[in-house]
Amino acid sequence: MTTKTIEIGEFTLKRVQEYVWEMPQEGDMRVPARVLASEELLSEIKEDKTLTQLHNTTQLPGIQEYALCMPDGHQGYGFPVGGVAGIDAEDGCISPGAVGYDINCGVRMVKTNLRYEDIQGTEEDLVNALFANVPTGLGGGGVVNNAPVEEILERGVEWAVEEGYGVETDLAHCEDEGFRAEADATAVSQKAKDRGRNQAGSLGSGNHFLEVQRVTDIYDDNVAAEFGLSKDQIVVLIHCGSRGLGHQVCTDYLRDIEQTHEGLLNQLPDKELAAAPAGSRLAEEYYRAMCGAINFAWTNRQLITHQTRQVFERVFDRSWQEMEMELLYDVSHNIAKKELHTIDGEQKELFVHRKGATRAFPAGRPELPPAYRDVGQPVIIPGSMGAGSYILRGGEQSLDETFGSTAHGAGRLMSRTQAKSEYWGEDVMDDLREQNQIYVKAESGATVAEEAPGVYKDIDDVVTVSDTLGIGDKVARTYPVCNIKG
């Protein structure tokens, strides 16, 4: 590999290894910044404010090693989407903007023993039944009306299982077993609770979706077997988060932190990075409230899983147990968690902020469920509704290179406003059905236009970077069959 330097606006990026571009530490930067990308992806990343936001992130107190941007990175709120930052949990800070408004937006994959041939001819019935039974769209409406939000905030998926919306094996195949013990419902405002009360078990809108997929490619036979994946298998991918509750938690704490820690805010280059010093009252309260929103989001995806199982039972006239509709994994990609990482040869507790980035722990990490501790964590990376998605496993290099993280999706190429000016939702749906045999049903054509395949980067390029760097290894690829959106 030849050394190469690229000038992008005010920034100089030097290639330090294949697919790794470093912005050297200078001025007010506390650490260097790194972008993980091919030259093609880098040319897309430079089109917005991603690099400026990444540069700003390096100025957060207590940040360790590097500020990182994954290959699907794009401009976000203060902190880039696709951003990862490990920040000292004793002497650093925690930043709501570096987690995002949709706390624990994430993905889960449900396996089945159905083959693609088993569902051909039923796609339209299936997509209509899913759309009728899984609440979608902006605003209220969930599987559980007037849900006991306080209990969900503090117990997570365990509450759903106890109420008959899941089984014990669902807990065993969810990140942290679907429960953050630090959650505290009293740290969540009444307004946030009220927003979530009738949204438990709903997709919401925007880029959230439920997609029935078929497995088209297996890249690692042994790991795929451990994950229970095989070619032509039907799986279901669910992508959503903490709905209005999580949004309100972020809003509440951003406002309080801006007012209470104005001195720290004035030291930062962007007020959207507002952060509470580690150990402060607001840092502790935000962490407990965020953990509650994390529990709510996991429960939200569990309730949607329950509805999906019931729909499959009706459409295919057999029990979901007969169809072996078991959870492969559920993993967050908007989160800040206390984790132990090796820094300069010593174990240190960090707030690892992942915003539009997926945890990708290799085999051996104690946080992994027993089912995957010897093989590595499943990593689920959705593509656009006209492209494939990928299942990876946590790579051996992830802890050294990215605080155990990789990409979370394809990453946007254009804004929602631009997408709506370039695409017509009904045309997109017609083309997907006629040319790709993909059935899409949505609350509005505008939503489909915002999420048209051309709006996103090439998922294959994103995953190639991850696989080549050894931070997330390719296991399998899937392709859409039908999709519902808000």
UniProtKB/TrEMBL annotation:
<keyword id="KW-0479">Metal-binding</keyword>
<comment type="function">
    <text>Essential for tRNA splicing and maturation. Acts by directly joining spliced tRNA halves to mature-sized tRNAs. Joins RNA with 2',3'-cyclic-phosphate or 3'-phosphate ends to RNA with 5'-hydroxy ends.</text>
</comment>
<feature type="binding site">
    <location>
        <position position="485"/>
    </location>
    <ligand>
        <name>GMP</name>
    </ligand>
</feature>
<feature type="binding site">
    <location>
        <position position="389"/>
    </location>
    <ligand>
        <name>GMP</name>
    </ligand>
</feature>
<dbReference type="GO" id="GO:0170057">
    <property type="term" value="F:RNA ligase (GTP) activity"/>
</dbReference>
<dbReference type="InterPro" id="IPR001233">
    <property type="entry name" value="RtcB"/>
</dbReference>
<feature type="binding site">
    <location>
        <position position="239"/>
    </location>
    <ligand>
        <name>Mn(2+) 2</name>
    </ligand>
</feature>
<keyword id="KW-0436">Ligase</keyword>
<dbReference type="GO" id="GO:0006388">
    <property type="term" value="P:tRNA splicing, via endonucleolytic cleavage and ligation"/>
</dbReference>
<feature type="binding site">
    <location>
        <begin position="333"/>
        <end position="334"/>
    </location>
    <ligand>
        <name>GMP</name>
    </ligand>
</feature>
<feature type="binding site">
    <location>
        <position position="102"/>
    </location>
    <ligand>
        <name>Mn(2+) 1</name>
    </ligand>
</feature>
<dbReference type="GO" id="GO:0005525">
    <property type="term" value="F:GTP binding"/>
</dbReference>
<feature type="binding site">
    <location>
        <begin position="382"/>
        <end position="385"/>
    </location>
    <ligand>
        <name>GMP</name>
    </ligand>
</feature>
<comment type="subunit">
    <text>Monomer.</text>
</comment>
<feature type="active site" description="GMP-histidine intermediate">
    <location>
        <position position="408"/>
    </location>
</feature>
<protein>
    <recommendedName>
        <fullName>tRNA-splicing ligase RtcB</fullName>
        <ecNumber>6.5.1.-</ecNumber>
    </recommendedName>
</protein>
<feature type="binding site">
    <location>
        <position position="333"/>
    </location>
    <ligand>
        <name>Mn(2+) 2</name>
    </ligand>
</feature>
<feature type="binding site">
    <location>
        <begin position="408"/>
        <end position="411"/>
    </location>
    <ligand>
        <name>GMP</name>
    </ligand>
</feature>
<comment type="similarity">
    <text>Belongs to the RtcB family.</text>
</comment>
<dbReference type="GO" id="GO:0046872">
    <property type="term" value="F:metal ion binding"/>
</dbReference>
<feature type="binding site">
    <location>
        <begin position="207"/>
        <end position="211"/>
    </location>
    <ligand>
        <name>GMP</name>
    </ligand>
</feature>
<feature type="binding site">
    <location>
        <position position="208"/>
    </location>
    <ligand>
        <name>Mn(2+) 1</name>
    </ligand>
</feature>
<keyword id="KW-0342">GTP-binding</keyword>
<dbReference type="Pfam" id="PF01139">
    <property type="entry name" value="RtcB"/>
</dbReference>
<dbReference type="InterPro" id="IPR036025">
    <property type="entry name" value="RtcB-like_sf"/>
</dbReference>
<keyword id="KW-0547">Nucleotide-binding</keyword>
<keyword id="KW-0464">Manganese</keyword>
